[in-house]
Amino acid sequence: MRSREDEAFRIGWEAARASAHAGRRGLGASEERSARSARAPDGPPVTLDFLRRNRVVLASAVCLAVGAALVVQTGRTPVRGDRLGRLFLEIMAPFQRATSAVGDAVSGTWRGVGEILQAHAENAALRARIRGLEERLDRVDEVERENGRLRTLLDFRQTLQGDVLTARVIGRDATGLSRTLTIDRGEADGFPRGAAVLAPEGVVGQVFLVSAHAARVLLVTDHNSGVDALVERTRARGIVQGTVDGTCALKYVKRTEDVQVGDDLVTSGLDGIFPKGLPIGRVTAVDKRGQGLFQSAEVAPRVDFDRLEEVLVTRGPVVPVEQAPAPGS
After folding, report:
1. What is the DSSP letter of 271?
2. Least confident interval from 1-15, 117-131, 162-176, 193-207
3. Which domains does the chain have, with CATH numbers?
4. Closest CA to 258 of 241, 237, 279
5. Which of 19, 79, 242, 246 could serve as a FRET partner for 87 with CA atoms 20 to 30 Å apart?
6. CA nearest 197: which of 277, 293, 303, 274?
7. SS3 state of residue 33
8. 248-254 and 215-219: which strand pairing?
9. Is 181 helix (H, G, I), strand (E, B) or coil?
10. With left for phi above 0 and alpha for psi between -120 and 50, is residue 262 left, alpha or beta?
């Protein structure tokens, strides 16, 4: 084993001498003269100056020699007796672990960044798709709600006999001075002034102003309106008028008539505007104070005017269709 180590050392030393000789030959004339002048008066050249000028070449030669020695030693020495290889392995292992850890961290970081960017793009695409689906769903829901209202309006139309047209509500009074609606049909559609405006829930009002393609509707809650009405339970007659607070009142009912809270009011058909038997509202309070001939009552309208979107407008006399008797009755 000792001879093998001596042989490896000799090979390394010869490689170092060869590299040093090659570097020495590469020196210029001026450098060689400087080297000669650097000799001591009575000895060899200055060693430190030589090492400084040839440090790169010498370092390369030493590494080459160590590598060659390791190769020779590894190839000729059994694995268990390779002390130099084991020492070199022990020295290099921490550096290899650190290099591997840094490489894994950098690779993992870049992989994580790529995954984050991909996830961000996918999330943006999914959010855009969700927004599109939500908008589509909103449109579908709106169409379904409109179809439901129109079906209800059509069913109500089947209960009336006469010339009736559908109109859309396109505006409301914003001043608060009157209770009116604007619809999208007018004289071009044959709507006369004073035409009745109806909804499936009951009476809405009557047309009081008409243009070629629009009309204004005076609601039953306006203080200038008036509808001839009957108490459905007792057939007591009175006039439903609007009030300043946006509700209705039943007036001119004889004091002797039986009117109670919860009674429903319907049109009498005697005013020549509204068909008979259409709902108007429900009595919420009765006032019999005073010594007059009449009593009055507060009435809540059946129609929610703030949510009204479509109405029926009469273009002439309209009467309710009589319901056929049920089989077996």
Report:
1. T
2. 1-15
3. 2-77 (no CATH), 163-317 (2.40.10.340)
4. 237
5. 19
6. 274
7. helix
8. unpaired
9. strand
10. left
